[in-house]
Structure to design on (315 residues):
């Protein structure tokens, strides 16, 4: 994954925390929501009180109209928030991995990148995606992205694997059942692609034995995304919350409360602009499931072959 040597983000207990996920290049919607939440002003300046955090649970890129602009906006806010005594926590999603691995030429990751909205990311940095497809990778693509937007790929490499606040875990796909430790969980790409094995599990979170690693670490609630829904969706008796509302044509953010569930969180949503390029929606559910099943191991093997962040940045 993109964050093998980027540590998880620990948000102090006394912070006020907002979270969202899967904004997919929707800069205008995110700007609208940040103003509504009192986190920024209309000029995009961080105006939240000290000890305020905003967590983005991955998939900043692909599909929408301005992946590069949104990534840059969030990076700028991350710096502003740190200077103001706050935190902007940018977490990796599977689409960040698909950009990074795809542009490096890992064939299966490239195939996922171009099948699920990567053309929109290429367009946002000034590349014409016509002529490129799931089986048409070229080394020139990665070089051109680095030339046109030299800050973009290093920014995606900086995204963290997950974040924690009080008893809440923020992660892209969800916790992995039976994980031996949080360190194991942190290093497994499955946390970016997992779906039903977490949110539809018959084993109640966090009390069932398969979730013991998280429960023993004090995690009792989860905020996540990855699986697009029409509206925010709760599970496990209100202890887990999927904020990916892409299917409903919305981006949603929520202000966390102190528990014991997530049922009473304050939410805001904004409409998305039309997606850019082909959707991958022509794939059958079985084909999409095959991607979800195969890609975590492929991403793990790709990262194992690459070494440290410093080594990656120097290449």
């Amino acid at each position: 994954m993109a964050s093998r040597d980027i540590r998880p983000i620990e948000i102090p207990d006394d912070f006020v925390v907002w979270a969202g996920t899967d904004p997919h290049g929707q800069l205008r919607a995110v700007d609208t929501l940040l103003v509504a939440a009192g986190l920024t002003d209309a000029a995009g300046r961080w105006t939240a009180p000290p000890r305020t955090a905003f967590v983005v649970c991955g998939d900043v890129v692909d599909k929408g109209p301005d992946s590069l602009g949104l990534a840059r906006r969030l990076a700028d806010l991350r710096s502003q928030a740190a200077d103001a005594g706050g935190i902007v926590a940018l977490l990796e999603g599977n689409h960040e991995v698909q950009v990074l691995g795809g542009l490096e030429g890992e064939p299966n990751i490239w195939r996922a990148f171009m099948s699920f909205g990567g053309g929109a990311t290429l367009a946002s940095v000034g590349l014409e995606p016509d002529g490129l497809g799931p089986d048409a990778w070229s080394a020139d693509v990665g070089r051109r992205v680095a030339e046109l937007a030299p800050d973009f790929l290093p920014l995606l490499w900086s995204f963290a694997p997950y974040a924690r606040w009080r008893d809440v875990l923020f992660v892209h796909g969800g916790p992995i059942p039976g994980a031996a430790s949080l360190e194991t969980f942190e290093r497994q790409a499955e946390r970016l692609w997992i779906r039903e094995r977490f949110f539809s599990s018959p084993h109640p979170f966090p009390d069932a034995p398969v979730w013991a690693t998280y429960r023993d670490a004090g995690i009792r609630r989860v905020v996540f995304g990855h699986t697009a829904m029409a509206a925010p969706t709760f599970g496990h008796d209100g202890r887990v919350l999927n904020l990916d509302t892409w299917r409903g044509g919305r981006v949603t953010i929520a202000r966390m409360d102190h528990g014991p569930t997530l049922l009473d969180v304050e939410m805001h949503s904004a409409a998305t602009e039309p997606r850019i390029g082909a959707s991958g929606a022509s794939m059958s559910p079985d084909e999409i499931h095959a991607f979800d099943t195969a890609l975590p191991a492929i991403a793990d093997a790709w990262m194992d072959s690459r070494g440290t962040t410093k080594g990656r940045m120097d290449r």
